[in-house]
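Example 3.2
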Amino acid sequence: MPISIDDVMELFCHLSQKKGMKAAVKHSGRGALLAGATAFIGGLVGGPPGIAVGGAFGGLLGAWMTTGQFKPVPQILLELPPAEQQKLYNEALVILRHLDWTDIAQLTAFVMGNASLQQKLTAVLINYLSKELRADIQYGE
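Structure, written as C-alpha cells:
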C-alpha cells in the first residue's frame, strides 16, 4: 500500500510520544544578531570599552535567549513546513517501503511491536532533528 506523508508523520509522532522525546530548536542567528547589536550600541555609547562590555552582555543575553524551550517532538513535527516533512518522509520510506500493511493503525502496531524497526526509525528522526533543525533532544516525561 502506498504510504502518505501524513501517515509517516503520524507514525513518527506516535513513536516519539511513546519515547517521551522533546526537542529544543536553537536559534543561533537571533543570538548572534543580539550580540552584534549590543556591541554596536556599546561602541556608540562608550567607545572601545563599550564595545567589549556591550559584546559580552549581548553574548550572554543571546546565549540565554537561544537555549530554547523543550517542546514535544510530535508538536515540532506537525509544525514542519511541507518541504521539511518531505525530507523526513523520504528518509523513512527507505525503511518502510518493504512492509506490508493496510492502514496506519496496522503499520503503527507493527512498528511498535518490532524493536529493530523502532530503533531504525528513531535513528532517522534523531538524525533529522539534530542535523536539519540543530535541535537538542531530551527523553522522558
